[in-house]
Every structure is written in structure tokens, then in C-alpha cells.
TrEMBL record:
This is Pyridoxal phosphate homeostasis protein. The keyword rRNA processing does not apply. The lineage of its organism: Eukaryota, Metazoa, Chordata, Craniata, Vertebrata. PROSITE patterns: UPF0001 (PS01211). Keywords: Pyridoxal phosphate. The modification N6-(pyridoxal phosphate)lysine is found at residue 78. The gene is PROSC. It comes from Pygocentrus nattereri (Red-bellied piranha). CDD domains: PLPDE_III_YBL036c_euk. The keyword Kinase does not apply. Pfam families: Ala_racemase_N. Residues 71-283 form the Alanine racemase N-terminal domain.
Length: 316
């Protein structure tokens, strides 16, 4: 039988390799905060570097006809503590993404982040409602909003940025989100509305700096069937925008590709990839108690199932 010390070492090992088990699982007497931070720092650093290496390798596989733009790696820290953001920052990562306004506000305003991460750049990559715009735009070191999906939202962000930042403010970088898959559960503009929306932003939103186009796309696409059609659609949208507004392809970024497909996205032209679980480990969401038998619904209607599907949070 294993001794107590062997059991403790076994539990520490599992924390080291996965970054998934809470410190409480092994007890404060076995692993101190200092030990945990050393383990976390080494593991996050290794994973950041591994993703950077894969990004660089994917660049070498891009056709020479594509713009020679170094892809930006956005580390998606959704549900992860500020300590993990800090460790990734210490290992050279600068761009971070969040899906929820409240979580971004809390994390970006954390004293640890403010004091130690002066060059951090926050990307908002979740669905943005107009009633949350002012809260989002007050985030320290906000760099880009990647999910503008309507003219009305663009106008709201534009006017709010002007009011909050004043006449001498730097323009806010934004991307227009396109629903390339046509799925009801995905946010974004239909592809055929892309040109008019971008034209409106460029012509009427002086506080915004149009940076490019973004898509999430469908999950689980089999690359053996050929290039991802969602990525191909976003490439087509960029081509149309460039032709219509007389822009070069280098002026219009493409934000596409996540943990499961970022290498393929880069190979076909992505300049901005959003990678979360591959760097920070599998996300753990708070669990809620199961309803008692008498309160548990016996049947879920088809309509209710569709509503639940639309509310599903997308992963990066």
C-alpha cells in the first residue's frame, strides 16, 4: 500500500500536468501556495510556448499568395483566475480575450493585473448587448471589441467611446462578426450584410477603427472533407469588403480559429486566433444542485430545446 507521502506526491503530479484540480483537493498542509504558483507558472509557460510554436509552424504552411501578416495569439482566459493571466503575461503573452463583460471588468481591474501587466491588451470576444456597452468601454487596457454585429451596436459603441474618452481619445479597434455558418445559435451578421455594415462604420463611426472580420463557425468540422467552409466564407467577405471600399487585404484582419482548429485557420489566412483551453486547461464552470424529483421537468419540448441550444456558451 502507498504511504501518505506517496499519495500526496501522486496528487501533486495530477495538479501539475492538468492544471484542473483545485488546491483544496490535496490540502494546504501538503502543497503550499508558493509550491502551487511555481507549478502553475511552469505549466502555463510551457503551454503558451507550445501554442506559439504551433502558430509559427502553421505560418510556414501558408500559401505565398496570402498576406505576410504575423498572426496574433489571443489567450482566452474565460473562467480562469487572474493568477493564470499573470503567469501567461510573464511568459510573453500580451493579448487576452474574455467572453463576458462582468468577468472582463473584474479581471482587467484586478490590482495584480493593473500593477504587473502594463502592456496587456484585452479583447472582448463575446456577444455584446447595448446595455453593457458603457461598462465594457470603461475596462482598463481595452484593445479591441471583436463582436460588432449590427449598425445599431456600432453606433452605440461609437457614441459611448466618444463620451467616455473625450475628443482626444484614440480610436477603438473593432471587428465585425459574421455568422458564416448560418446557425441560429451563433451571433453575427449574415454575410450579405457585411459590406453595408463596414461602410457605415468607416463613414459614420469616427471613434472606431475598423480592424477586420471575425467568425466562430460550426464545431467539429472534418478537415478531410477540405478547407473549412466558414473560413472560406470569411475570406470571401474580406475580398468583397476590400473591393468595395478600395482597401488592401493587409488592412482587413481575419479573426478565426480556436483551440481545435487554429492551425488550419492560420494556414488559410487567419491573422488573429483565439486559444483558451489549450493554454489554460479545460474550463470548470460552477455547478448547481440538481432539482428535486418533484421539480424536475419530465419532458423537454422541442421549442425549449432550441432555446437552450441558442443560449449555449461557445468555447474557445
Amino acid at each position: 500500500p502507498k504511504t501518505a507521502n506517496q499519495n500526496a506526491r501522486h496528487r501533486i503530479f495530477h495538479i501539475y500536468v492538468g492544471l484542473r484540480r483545485p488546491i483544496a483537493a490535496i490540502g494546504r498542509s501538503t502543497c503550499t501556495d508558493a509550491m502551487w504558483k511555481v507549478v502553475m507558472s511552469e505549466e502555463v509557460g510551457k503551454k503558451v510556448q507550445a501554442v506559439v510554436d504551433r502558430v509559427n509552424q502553421a505560418v510556414t504552411r501558408r500559401p505565398k499568395t496570402l498576406p505576410c501578416v504575423a498572426p496574433r495569439l489571443v489567450a482566452v482566459s474565460k473562467t480562469k483566475p487572474p493568477d493564470m493571466v499573470l503567469e501567461a503575461y510573464k511568459h510573453g503573452q500580451r493579448n487576452f480575450g474574455e467572453n463576458y463583460v462582468n468577468e472582463l471588468v473584474e479581471k482587467a481591474s484586478h490590482p495584480l493585473i493593473l500593477s504587473s501587466c502594463s502592456e496587456i491588451k484585452w479583447h472582448f470576444i463575446g456577444h455584446l448587448q447595448k446595455n453593457n456597452v458603457n461598462k465594457l468601454l470603461g475596462v482598463p487596457n481595452l484593445y479591441m471589441v471583436e463582436t460588432i454585429d449590427s449598425v445599431k451596436l456600432a453606433d452605440k459603441v461609437n457614441s459611448s467611446w466618444q463620451k467616455l474618452r473625450g475628443s482626444n481619445m484614440q480610436r477603438l479597434k473593432i471587428m465585425v462578426q459574421i455568422n458564416t455558418s448560418g446557425e441560429e445559435s451563433k451571433h453575427g451578421l449574415p454575410p450579405d450584410e457585411t459590406i453595408n455594415t463596414v461602410k457605415h462604420i468607416v463613414s459614420h463611426c469616427s471613434a472606431l477603427d475598423f480592424a477586420g472580420l471575425m467568425t466562430i463557425g460550426r464545431y467539429g468540422y472534418d478537415l478531410s472533407e477540405g478547407p473549412n467552409p466558414d473560413f472560406q466564407m470569411l475570406l470571401k467577405c474580406r475580398e468583397q469588403v476590400c473591393d468595395s471600399l478600395k482597401l488592401s487585404v493587409e488592412q482587413v484582419e481575419l479573426s478565426m480559429g480556436m483551440s481545435t482548429d487554429f492551425e488550419h485557420a492560420i494556414e488559410v489566412g487567419s491573422t488573429n486566433v483565439r486559444v483558451g483551453s489549450t493554454i489554460f486547461g479545460t474550463r470548470e464552470y460552477p455547478t448547481t444542485p440538481s432539482p428535486s424529483p418533484e421539480r424536475r421537468p419530465k419532458v423537454v419540448s422541442e421549442e425549449a430545446a432550441k432555446k437552450m441550444e441558442r443560449l449555449t456558451v461557445t468555447e474557445h
